[in-house]
Specification:
heterodimer, A: mainly alpha, Non-ribosomal Peptide Synthetase Peptidyl Carrier Protein, Chain A, B: alpha/beta, UDP N-Acetylglucosamine Acyltransferase, domain 1, 6-stranded parallel β-sheet
């Protein structure tokens, strides 16, 4: 399974990924890239995210929190 | 004011006659339409007279006519009623909105309507029965065939040829130098950059519905400041 950090770097096309980065900190993270991220996470972890989870995932920490709650990270 | 009969008692007739009233160039004496649609015989406060009997009420020596109907049968209906009006002896007039922008050397035929905010550049020739709606652009040296219907905010590039009866939907774009065959149906939001044959239909899929609901999407995007 692709580690989450690698998945995020690939989607956002960045080399470094600050642990506490938010959508505002990463230039390539917009509402459309966000949906690419959601699709990639769902495929990688074999889960279906809810609309509220998708809307909550506005930082790296929040993404980790959602995946921990789902028991996949 | 010039006395006028408007053929049309539907939504298109309403829009066109309301613009005519506003600009004040024409005095609408009556509306007319096919007998089966006459109803109570009134439209926008004026007599609505069956087309079949119009000469008995307001003759061609008393008023000109504008055929203000939509693009039924890809504009054939309008062209057909224009022909019948001519056969009855009426002179077909054009209406160019006072708020449209036409270069002085643009030429147009009979029964042409150009509505508010449309822009028609130099060297353009508009045929008979052409309808150009609000905010549309017709680029320089283009030729628009008889009966074409160019909907609001459509964009026609320079040196384009639209043959008879074409329909361009909202925000359709036709690129520079392109020729559309007769009676092409170009849907809303499409882009045409290559010539197409007669009767071509070009449409695009609707945008997809996002999987987030509005409140969720706003919650997501409001953090992007």
């Amino acid at each position: 399974m692709v580690p989450l950090d690698n998945l995020l770097k690939q989607i956002f096309k960045v080399g470094d990924l600050p642990t506490e980065a938010t959508m505002n900190d990463i230039e390539t993270w917009d509402s459309l890239t966000h949906m690419d991220l959601v699709t990639e996470i769902e495929t990688t972890y074999d889960i279906a995210l809810t609309g509220d989870e998708i809307a909550d995932m506005q930082s790296i920490g929040a993404i980790r929190q959602v995946l921990q709650t789902r028991g996949v990270a | 004011m010039k006395p006028l009969i408007v053929f049309g008692a539907g939504k298109i007739g309403h829009v066109f006659s309301a613009c005519l009233d506003r600009d004040g160039e024409f005095d609408i004496l009556a509306h007319t339409c096919d007998a089966e649609f006459v109803g109570d015989g009134q439209f926008r406060g004026k007599p609505l007279i069956p087309f079949e009997q119009i000469t008995d009420h307001v003759g061609p020596d008393q008023a000109d006519m504008l055929v203000a109907v939509g693009y039924q049968d890809c504009n054939r209906f309008r062209l057909d009623r224009m022909r019948q009006a001519r056969e009855k002896g009426y002179r077909l007039v054009s209406y160019i909105s006072s708020r449209a922008m036409l270069h002085p050397d643009v030429t147009w035929g009979e029964n042409v309507v150009v509505l508010d905010g449309a822009s028609v550049q130099a060297g353009v020739a508009l045929g008979d029965g052409v309808m150009i709606w609000d905010g549309a652009l017709v680029g320089h040296h283009s030729t628009v065939g008889n009966g074409c219907w160019i909907t609001g905010s459509a964009a026609v590039g320079g040196s384009v040829t639209l043959r008879e009866g074409c329909f361009l939907g909202l925000q359709a774009t036709v690129g520079h130098g392109v020729t559309l065959g007769r009676r092409c149906m170009i849907g809303a939001g499409t882009l045409v950059t290559k010539d197409v044959d007669d009767e071509a239909v070009i449409i695009r899929r609707d945008s997809q519905t996002h999987r987030l609901q509005t409140s969720q999407f706003f919650r997501l995007t409001q953090s992007l400041v």
